């Protein structure tokens, strides 16, 4: 039986369309990260990729697309095909903070990206070089009031959450602190360990690593309660400063990625985060595993955008500071 040309064309079109979802489940998945190796974000991303590779049954690789505090990686996601093969792992900064702090942002995280999974929360800490003659937050505040050089503090990037948390603390303490941005957490921690910078704000886990070397002290953490992995670190609140702030890591796909593809990736990410082995690794690192789905990640993204907007505006921050 010979099929008429019109019917044959429709049949072929239907076959190709039916095959498209399968294509999204083949090939290598790339997770882009805007930060270099050596920090908690890199470790988290690689652990996640290993577990997702197992559950998806296809290659999952990590690409450190470093630069501009994570903005270069975010821009690359915007230009990627919405086929589920290119993802972005990012902390809160590039998603909910940068839209306020950079007027020339080349992407809109609310319209250019599709939320996939909320991976973990983390607390921000204030660490100081052991070259400073202080062992407590109260002593540090007193020193900064006497010596402005002690108020110079590092973070992984200008306009990031740790940067603005430093601004928040300085205002609460009534002291002047000067932000010094570094290219990534690893560089900031190296500077702190060498005594090149007096203080730093970043993940408590990263500060604790430097503390173990005897080169830094962690004075306080940003949560409502002490970090579970580091019960010896007091919170700013218990030390008399009514400030609080959590950072987080999430996974995004390009906008227009098909819903079934998002659901498949979200399930794989949540399965990875909830696996016993990975949860233990993250908790040891000072991260709080979450594994929330796309809707919850979108809600958190918007809530933090609204929370930090007024704080960033009040800080007077301008790109390049």
Low-pLDDT ranges: 1-23
Number of domains: 2
Instruction: Supply the number of helical segments.
Output: 11
CATH fold title of the largest domain: D-Maltodextrin-Binding Protein, domain 2
Q: What is the architecture of the largest domain at the second tier of CATH?
A: 3-Layer(aba) Sandwich
Q: What is the CA–CA distance across the termini?
A: 74 Å
Order of helices and strands: HEHEHEHEHEHEHEHEEHHEH
- Global structural class: alpha/beta
Describe the main β-sheet briefly: 10 strands, mixed
Assign a percent range to the helix content.
Answer: 40-55%
Beta-strand share of residues: 15-25%
Shape: globular
Mean pLDDT: 90
The top level CATH class name of the largest domain: Alpha Beta
Radius of gyration: 22 Å
How many strand elements?
10
User: Could you name the CATH homologous superfamily of the largest domain?
Assistant: Bordetella uptake gene, domain 1
């Amino acid at each position: 039986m010979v099929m008429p040309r019109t019917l044959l064309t429709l049949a072929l079109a239907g076959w190709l369309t039916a095959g498209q979802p399968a294509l999204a489940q083949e090939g290598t998945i790339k997770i882009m990260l805007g930060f270099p190796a050596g920090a908690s974000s890199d470790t988290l991303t690689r652990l996640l990729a290993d577990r997702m590779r197992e559950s998806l049954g296809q290659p999952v690789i990590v690409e450190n697309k470093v630069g501009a505090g994570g903005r270069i990686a975010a821009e690359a996601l915007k230009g990627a095909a919405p086929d589920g093969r290119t993802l972005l792992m990012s902390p809160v900064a590039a998603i909910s903070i940068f839209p306020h702090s950079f007027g020339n942002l080349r992407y809109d995280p609310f319209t250019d990206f599709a939320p996939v999974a909320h991976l973990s929360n983390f607390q921000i800490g204030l660490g100081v070089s052991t070259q400073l003659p202080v062992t407590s937050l109260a002593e540090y505040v007193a020193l900064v009031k006497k010596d402005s050089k002690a108020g110079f503090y590092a973070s992984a990037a200008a306009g990031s959450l740790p940067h603005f948390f430093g601004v928040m603390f300085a205002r609460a303490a009534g002291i002047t602190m000067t932000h010094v941005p570094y290219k990534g957490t690893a560089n900031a921690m190296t500077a702190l360990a060498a005594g090149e910078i007096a203080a730093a704000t970043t993940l408590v886990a990263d500060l604790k690593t430097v503390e173990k070397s005897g080169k830094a002290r962690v004075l306080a953490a940003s949560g409502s309660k002490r970090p579970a992995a580091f019960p010896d670190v007091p919170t700013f609140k218990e030390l008399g400063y009514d400030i609080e702030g959590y950072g987080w890591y999430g996974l995004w796909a390009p906008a227009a990625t098909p819903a079934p593809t998002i659901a498949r990736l979200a399930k794989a990410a949540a399965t990875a985060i909830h696996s016993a082995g990975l949860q233990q690794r993250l908790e040891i690192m000072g991260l709080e595993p979450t594994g929330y789905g796309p809707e919850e990640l979108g809600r958190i993204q918007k809530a933090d955008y609204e929370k930090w907007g007024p704080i960033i505006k009040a800080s007077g921050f301008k790109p390049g500071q």
